[in-house]
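Hi W.,

Here's what went into the run:
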Amino acid sequence: MADVNRGNRPLSPHLQIYKPHILMVSSILIRITGNGSTVGIVMVLWWLLAAAAGPETYEAHMAWLTHFWLAKLVWFGLIWALWYHMLGGIRHLIWDEAVGLELETAEKLGWGIVIGSVVGAVLTAIILLIV
Amino acid sequence: MHYLTDRKRAEGKGSVAHGADHQLQVTYSSYMMTALVILFLFRIAPLIGAPYEVVVEGLTRPFNMVIMGLFVVSTTYHWRFNIKKVFEDYVPHGWDFAGMIITTALGWFFCGLGLFALVKILIASMIVPV
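Here's what came out:
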């Protein structure tokens, strides 16, 4: 009787019926920041290739890539994404060792990476603007 | 098909085939990326948008050149390996395979572009000292 009702079974409840909580939000953000960082790969490569093309080309491209205010905003977003994705990855490396899996600790880690990534990104941006 | 039991149909599916290997590959890559991202933020990020001479001088320092080379290779590997999830989870069967072929090629292309740029910057710095 293995094939009874096959392919016509009810789906299990999905994302939208759950009230968002820190563990699901902090998890999906890892995926979003990871995929979003594709933009970062393109922009860092753009910078490298512009530098490889020589001083005139480099300065012309930097006017758009780094000096333009909208680009600065994108760079800030990428710095945050990098911080978030890294802290989220470290959280998984901790969990891989079967540490911090208790609900209360796991939720603290979730808030930790959200807050930590914002603090890290702001500090990085300040340091980069000063230097 | 009617005579297959539930268990028979489920055996060999899911994470049993490549699951442990996939987990380990992501773990190795994650440790490497953690170290490289921190080094990138400290040593390379300050050079992005800096004047041309500063960029060439900074990137051609041996330590920075090696860090950036590793960062290019490791990041494009990490990207190639993990972007597959998008196709596995959100793209209909058939198109997902096409997407993985394209992103695999694109990942290698990014890797090549980055390394090419680094080599060219190094050569330029040797021909015309800045």
